[in-house]
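Table S2 (text version). Query chain:
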Amino acid sequence: MRELLKRSSAYKIIASDKKNGLLSHGYLVVCQDGDMHGEYLKMLAKLMMCDSEEFCDCCRICKLTDTWSHPE
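Corresponding structure-token output:
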């Protein structure tokens, strides 16, 4: 799933904004696959909030996001 996400326009835009220190307060994300929408949004949230360049899946932020428990 992560490799598919990396090919999406949303991922490329958010990754570029993060790299350049230009993350916005909000993004409109459209996903045609309703079954995977939640996972897609979780990965994008981790991309935005994780301290690593992409997202690590093992830090506190990533773990809280995985369980929908992150306050932001």
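Notes on Table S2: Residues 15 and 21 are 10 Å apart (CA to CA). The two ends are 23 Å apart (CA to CA).
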